[in-house]
Write a structure and sequence with these properties.
The chain has two domains: 254 residues, Nitrilase/N-carbamoyl-D-aminoacid amidohydrolase; 187 residues, Nitrilase/N-carbamoyl-D-aminoacid amidohydrolase (4-Layer Sandwich), CATH 3.60.110. Helix content is 21%, strand content 30%. The longest helix has 17 residues. It starts with a strand and ends in a 12-residue tail after the last strand.
């Protein structure tokens, strides 16, 4: 069985790169002394993770900081000198673009491949570009998947690595403290990484940082899990060290994904919804408008048809996998269209805050409001206070508001039409994932900020 080692390093500044390089060389020697087959170094072990800005990084380069090519040359030399495979996180340059990268060097010093972090975390997005590929690398110990820190928060990423043959995942990371100032905690070493290992039947070696970089505190806790999720070795929260363990590499378990779930998980992202709001009929016997080009659009489509007060009210019945639903109102109810939660209610209901608030708390993205007894100011308030899309359809016109309360599209309908110039439907297309973001300012969530124990109504 191969012996896998993880090295834990302290946070460092860009201008401390000589000391960082010296420390990494020492940790490689310590892993070799433990007769490791593979050593995993942390995320952005070279030269630092929290760099402050792209400008700060390139200023450091101008001041003498070696680039990633020089670092990879050094890494290859260490691997060759110690006959040790090394996976290391580092900052990669491509012109003026930066990537949060990790590579795998073979014991002969050959760079077998590179992975760029796909799921960028918080300040990552300020200076790094996202990765575009997820592919394991062939090595002397088998197929090795690379993922970086927050990549592990998305189960789709380790599932893809395992599906493509990875029997071991090397995980350079810098777990950020998400507990209070007097505690160190992150969900990944606590339960997420062991859960990934157990679910997919793949060993995972996670190398983290401890201490501080910039205004960010790391929790250490580097670990090695076997394919059953058992933690074989783990570092403390505040130490620079190397730990290792013999790890049996087994055939990974195929992800358990049903065909219907796979269609949703691998479907287009983000889900764009096209709304087509038809004018109400002029009489109960008036024929329904023809489908039209809009309803055959390839994105998800919601067709809304206001009815006369005495008309039969019908609800949507989208089949599994359907990309179009028709909503005839007024009516009340909710349904899912390819993962987009759509609800409908009357203007009377929408005049009070409670019904749409409750729908938002249940995960609704789009609320259709039927009727004319509600003013635009209130409709905008309902959209903004709940961060949902409001689609209002009445006898005189229609309007679509975004989660900020801004009108995306609107139209007015004439009560008298002739055969040559009938009222045209209103169409609008928008990204429904905007309704999943409840932040109105940093750390200011319109739903999570509620405190029901204080309220009375």
């Amino acid at each position: 069985m191969p012996r896998i080692a993880v090295a834990q390093t302290p946070g460092a500044r860009l201008d401390q790169w000589p000391e960082t390089l010296e420390l990494l060389a020492e940790l490689v020697q310590r892993a070799a002394a433990q007769r490791a087959t593979l050593l995993v170094l942390p995320e952005c072990a070279w030269p630092a993770y929290h760099i402050g800005s792209k400008q700060a990084y390139f200023a450091a380069r101008t001041a003498g900081l070696p680039g990633h090519r020089e670092f990879l040359d050094k890494l290859s030399t260490w691997a060759r000198e110690h006959n040790l495979a090394i996976c290391a996180g580092y900052i990669a340059e491509d012109g003026d673009r930066l990537f949060n990268a990790a590579c795998l060097a073979s014991p002969s010093g050959r760079i077998l491949g590179v992975h760029h972090k796909c799921f960028l975390w918080d300040f990552d997005r300020d200076w790094f570009e996202p990765g575009r590929t997820i592919e394991p690398l062939d090595s002397d110990i088998g197929r090795v998947g690379l993922m970086i820190c927050a990549d592990a928060r998305l189960p789709e990423i380790p599932a893809t690595l395992v599906h493509r043959g990875a029997s071991l995942i090397a995980h350079p990371t810098a777990w950020v403290n998400v507990a209070g100032p007097n505690a160190l905690w992150n969900p990944q070493p606590d339960f997420l990484v062991p859960a990934r290992a157990k679910e997919f039947g793949v060993a995972i070696a996670s190398a983290s940082k401890w201490g501080v970089e910039g205004d960010t505190t790391f929790v250490g806790s580097s670990l090695i899990c076997d394919a059953e999720g058992n933690v074989l070795a783990q570092c403390g929260r505040r130490e620079t060290t190397v730990v290792s363990a013999e790890v049996g590499l087994t055939r990974p378990r195929a992800p358990r994904v049903r065909a219907t779930d796979r269609a949703v998980l691998l479907g287009p992202q983000p889900p764009m919804l096209r709304v087509v709001i038809h004018p109400p009929p002029t009489s109960e016997h008036a024929p329904a408008p023809p489908p039209g080009v809009a309803e055959q659009h390839p994105s998800l489509t919601l067709v809304i048809r206001p009815s006369l007060p005495t008309a039969r009210r019908a609800g949507p019945s989208p089949r599994a996998g359907a990309r179009t639903a028709t909503l005839v109102g007024p009516r009340r109810g909710a349904f899912l269209l390819q993962g987009v939660c759509i609800a409908a209610l009357s203007d009377e209901d929408a005049r009070g805050f409670a019904p749409i608030r409750a729908l938002a708390l249940r995960g609704t993205h789009v609320v259709a409001v039927f009727g004319d007894k509600i003013d635009p100011v209130t409709l905008r308030a309902r959209a903004a206070e709940n961060r949902v899309f409001i689609v209002a359809a009445g006898s005189t016109g229609a309007v679509v508001y975004d989660p900020g309360g801004k009108a995306l599209a609107s139209c007015s309908w004439s009560s008298t039409t002739d055969n040559n110039r009938p009222n045209a439907p209103l169409t609008a297309t928008f990204d429904t994932t905007q309704a999943t973001d409840k932040l109105v300012a940093p750390r200011t969530d319109t739903l999570a900020g509620r405190n029901p124990s204080q309220y009375a109504f």
